[in-house]
Design goal:
Length: 149
């Protein structure tokens, strides 16, 4: 074994610190907690953001800006190639069927159908949104596209 191979795994199996196991261990008697007071007792963590009565940092710093994150409309994405693999010819596909197959997480989620992949089956798909290429591929195979509000 070479020394450059040893250093890569040198600290990977570090022995745990055995606290309160006598003077010889170096962590006996007070077990590394010092002497007396609140700090030696269990549950003495305190609040991480408490600054001893001083005005906390998050209150001293001015609050600015606005985020639209909570107001964004999020869609679960399903590709045409996935419709090809999971559904048979002539199937009516809605959000409930997509949930049943496992392509969408929840019945309440909004779905957008994208045109990635090829489609050879005649499907009637109903979803909240469609890309132009997905609409063309579905209707090109003789299927129907229905936009659900």
């Amino acid at each position: 074994m070479m020394t450059n191979e040893i250093t890569a795994i040198a600290g990977s199996n570090k022995k745990r610190k055995r606290i309160g196991r006598g003077k010889g261990s170096g962590h006996g008697k007070t077990s590394g907690r010092g002497h007396k007071g609140c700090g030696q007792r269990a549950g003495s963590g305190g609040l991480g953001n408490y600054e001893g009565g001083q005005m906390p940092l998050f209150r001293r710093i001015p609050k600015r800006g606005f985020s639209n994150y909570n107001f964004a409309r999020r869609f679960e994405i399903v590709n045409v190639s996935q419709l090809e693999t999971f559904f048979d010819d002539g199937t009516d596909i809605s959000v409930e069927e997509l949930v049943g197959v496992g392509l969408v997480n929840n019945v309440k989620s909004k779905v957008k159908i994208l045109g990635d992949g090829e489609l050879t089956k005649k499907l009637s798909v109903s979803a909240q949104k469609f890309s132009k290429s997905a609409e063309q591929k579905i209707s090109g195979c003789g299927g129907t596209v229905k936009v659900v509000a």
